[in-house]
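Session log. Operator J.P. requested a structure for one protein chain; no other inputs attached. Running the standard single-chain path with token output.
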Amino acid sequence: MPQILIDPESKSLAERFALVKTPRKNRSRYPEACVTPVADEQEAQAGAGSAPDLHPALVYGPSKSSEGQRIYYLVHWLD
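Structure written below.
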């Protein structure tokens, strides 16, 4: 997994607990449409089984990619 550079002074980028909809867990970044931020780790864990391919994670973002999409970087999976 690539090293993520975190900007401690950023007002829009932050680590967040989230549910990530993906069939494969081998990517290091996910489009905003696949990521649902949640309030805390417990909510992420609880929501994981509610739909197919929905996984709890800690992500960083959203950031703008070079392709112009808003993306989240995977920090680590919670399951």
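Operator note: The first strand starts at residue 14 and ends at 21.
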